[in-house]
Amino acid sequence: MSKLIFVNLPVSDLPRAIAFYEAVGAMKNEQFTDHTAACMVFSETIHVMLLTHDKFRQFTPKPIANARETTEVLICMSADSREAVDDMVARADAAGGVIDPGPKQDYGFMYGRSFEDHDGHIWEVMWMDVAAAKEAMSEMTPA
Q1: Strand, helix or coil at 132?
Q2: Judging by beta carbons within 10 Å of its beta carbon (0-12, 13-18, 19+), is residue 75 exposed, middle or buried?
Q3: CATH of 1-64, one of 3.30.450.40, 1.10.3720.10, 3.40.1160.10, 3.10.180.10
C-alpha cells in the first residue's frame, strides 16, 4: 500500500480556504469535512487538511505560527510539465494568492514557481525532466 501524506494547515477563514484550494486544483472530500475542517485532495496520496485555528489547537500545545510573518514550512508538489507549473500558479493568482514569493527556478531540466495561500502558507510547484536531471548531475560528478 502506498503511504499517504496529510498536510495539516491552520486557516483563518475555512470557506475562503476551501474555495482557494479548489481553485488551484484540489477536490473537497465531504467525508472528512465539517464546519471546523476540510479535507482537500490533490491526488490519491496527497491530502491537505484545512483546520480552523480552534480545531488546529486540539492537535498541538504550541502556538500557531503566523505564516505571514514566519515560515513554518515550504510545501512542494510536483507537476507534469512546465505548463502545468504555470497553470497552477495562474489559478492561485486568480484565486487571490500571492504569486512567486520566492524566485522562479529555471534550470532547463527543472522548473519551479511558488504561491502563498490567503493564510501565508507557501506552496512550491516543480517540474523536472528526471532523465535530463540525472545526466546533468552525472556531468557534475568528478570521474
Answers
A1: helix
A2: middle
A3: 3.10.180.10
Integer distance in angstroms from the first to the last C-alpha of the chain?
39
For residues 74 and 60, the answer to whether their CB atoms sit within 8 Å is no
Q: pTM of the entire structure?
A: 0.88
The residue among 108 and 49 whose pLDDT is bigger is 49
Mark 11-27 as b/e (b = at least 16 C-beta within 10 Å).
beebebbbebbebbbbe
**How, if at all, do strands 27-29 and 74-78 pair?**
unpaired
pLDDT of residue 131: 84
118: pLDDT strictly greater than 60: yes
Confidence grade of residue 82 (pLDDT, cut at 50, 70, 90): very high
Q: Residue with C-alpha cell 524566485?
A: 103
